[in-house]
Structure formats: structure tokens, C-alpha cells
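Quick one: C-alpha cells for this chain, please?
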Amino acid sequence: MSVSVGELRNGLSRFLNRAAYGGERIIVTSRGNPKAAVISYEDLQLFEDLEDASAAREALAEHRSGETISLQELEVELGLVEATE
């Protein structure tokens, strides 16, 4: 579904509910061009989890040259925990 900024402004509550409870992904357009999207919080969490998984795959690929690292080093590299001295 696609709505203009004006349509979104006039029906914000309705569109938020459609995203939150109906699982719809709503593209917001300005002058006919896509500018943003309204998605459910669950979809946002899914996208963030996918980003984390992608970063983990990239980190593992960098270390597949035979070098091994500990889980703690990997967590630090991925920014999941702070490095300890």
C-alpha cells in the first residue's frame, strides 16, 4: 500500500493500526516518490535481527582464513559487548 504524506497526516491513527495490527507495510510518498515506510514494531525487530545476522556472517567470513577467534572476541567485533582489558 502507498499513501501520500497528506493522506498519512489525515489518517495517521488508521495507518498505524493497519501496520501494527494488520501487518501491512505502508509506503509514504511525497510528490509521487517513496520517502519512508510505516511498518509494525515486529517487522522492525525482524529487520534488525537480519542486520545482526548479516554482520555475523561477514565477521565469520573475514576469519575463515584459518584463524580462529574466541566467542568473546567475535562479540566485541560485532559490537554486542564492550571490550575488556
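The two ends are 51 Å apart (CA to CA).
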